[in-house]
Write a structure and sequence with these properties.
Belongs to the D-isomer specific 2-hydroxyacid dehydrogenase family. The chain is α/β, with parallel strands linked by helices. It has 14 helices and 16 strands. The structure holds 1,4-dihydronicotinamide adenine dinucleotide and 2-oxoglutaric acid.
């Protein structure tokens, strides 16, 4: 492992590491902030585990209020609205971990949190089914022209016609991003009798009768319905732009329940205007209202054949309750036991119980010799190590050491002084 540390250090440029130190307190002193209406199941998990200092808010907080709230907070829970950037982190000196109570983690600067030794956790598939079901429903409604017929009926108009109304059976569904949601959507669509093709940048196992498209453009050219299930990355930004729209099969349906940056809204509005696409369902937008009180602005509002939903793809009672439990359990585990298993930004270390021992968690810059210095501290303080676990990424290393209770405080103090230390915690 030491060799791996050394090699990675040599080939990666040095990143700016922000050194802050935190220790573990009594549970009632650990402040947990849960924002954006995170399901009550999360608070219940924390309370059941003895955490009582819990602040909740039904919405995201304005930046100044958020900074104030985070000044003495140890754990932060958010959904997709709260943006966590280096500026915010500089106002959260005690922050130990962040829970994204959703799938996407693009709202958090993952490198900045990594360099501060703050693990970020999410719920990678607790709302997968909810998104897939919404997409399926929207697809059926759009193929039947229901949104425009319904909007007309609300205005007193009666469009009893089969024109431009189709079954899903036998139609081709093109899935862009064949991950958890993409595959789940494909399976459900096949059960309706659709033919499924997908485009992914990774080589993927095709489930059921699905097949990989030759290219993104080939998928667009041959699909009756196109649905996006990619994360927000540099590659997916405006993936569906003016050029991509030129490849869409005449009269196709377009669905985006991934991230608002993936589909260029002006290009979509243009395609709707010219009739190049026959309808759309959009759940996510480049700029979304910060609260339910803010007006939603979009050039798509004028189109009856567009289903507009307020980023609720994953918002079902089932999904939110499950996400609340899953993410809070990960945060509790990190707090109580030090486990970073399934963290999206820090080296993953799965840990057994440390009953009868004190556990010292040390997050540090991944540089040559640091592991030796850590173990020097233990040997020079005559500390007997009963177990040690470690994992590294290009930038940071995470070493967890279980030691006898009698010698833990002295060793802990010495470990904090090692150059390159980012964060230390002692778990009793
Ligand atoms: N509307 C909502 O409420 C929700 C939205 N989401 C969004 O859906 C996204 C997808 O979720 P999952 O399926 O769980 O993620 P996933 O990580 O399981 O799958 C994403 C897939 O996209 C592929 N991909 C990445 N870049 C690509 C590119 N440039 N071209 C083609 N494929 C690419 C990946 O290889 C992967 O297979 C999330 O990142 C999140 O942003 C997730 C849940 C709820
Ligand atoms: O529920 C939310 O606030 C966001 C859902 C979402 O987009 C996700 O899980 O990535």
């Amino acid at each position: 492992m030491l060799a791996a540390l050394t090699i990675l250090h040599k080939i990666r440029p040095r990143k700016k590491i922000v050194t802050t130190q935190a220790t573990s307190f009594n549970k009632d002193k650990i402040k947990i902030v849960l924002l954006e209406g995170i399901h009550a199941s999360a608070e219940k998990v924390f309370r059941n585990e003895g955490y009582t200092n819990i602040v909740t808010a039904a919405k995201s907080l304005p930046v100044d209020e958020l900074k104030e709230t985070l000044a003495d907070a140890h754990f932060l829970g958010i959904r997709s609205r709260t943006q966590v950037n280096p500026e915010l982190l500089s106002h959260a000196p005690r922050l130990a971990a962040i829970g994204c109570f959703c799938i996407g983690t693009n709202q958090v600067d993952l490198e900045a949190t990594e360099l501060r030794g703050i693990p970020v956790f999410n719920a990678p598939f607790a709302n997968t089914r909810s998104v897939a079901e919404l997409v399926l429903g929207e697809m059926i409604l759009l193929l039947r022209g229901v949104p425009q017929k319904s909007a007309a009926a609300h205005r007193g108009e009666w469009i009893k016609s089969a024109a431009n109304s189709f079954e899903t059976r036998g139609k081709i569904l093109g899935i862009v991003g064949y991950g958890h949601i993409g595959t789940q959507t494909g399976i459900l669509a096949e059960n309706l009798g659709m033919k499924v093709q997908f485009f992914d940048i990774e080589s993927k196992l095709a489930l059921g009768n699905a097949r990989a498209a030759e290219s993104f453009h080939q998928l667009l050219e041959t699909s009756d319905v196109v649905t996006f299930h990619v994360p927000e990355t540099d590659l997916t930004k405006n993936m569906m732009d003016e050029t991509a729209f030129k490849h869409v099969k005449q009269g196709a349906i377009l669905i985006n329940a991934s991230r608002g940056t993936v589909v260029d809204i002006d290009s979509l509005a243009n395609a709707l205007k010219t009739g190049a696409v026959n309808g759309a369902a959009i759940d996510v937008f480049p700029k979304e209202p910060k609260s339910n009180q803010e007006e939603f602005l979009s050039p798509l509002r004028e189109y009856d054949n567009v289903i507009l939903t307020p980023h609720v793809g994953g918002s079902t009672m089932e999904a939110q309750a499950n996400i609340g439990i899953e993410v809070s359990e990960k945060l509790v585990k990190y707090s109580d036991n030090g486990s970073t298993l399934s963290s999206v930004n820090l080296p993953e270390v799965a840990l057994p119980s440390h009953k009868g021992k004190h556990r010292i968690c040390h997050i540090h810059q991944n540089e040559p010799g640091i592991l030796a210095r850590i173990n020097d501290v233990f040997s020079s303080n005559n500390v007997n190590i009963s177990a040690q676990y470690l994992q590294t990424s290009a930038n940071v290393g995470y070493v967890v050491t279980d030691i006898d209770q009698a010698s833990s405080d002295k060793a802990f103090e010495a470990l904090k002084q090692i150059p390159g230390t980012i964060k230390t915690r002692i778990l009793y």
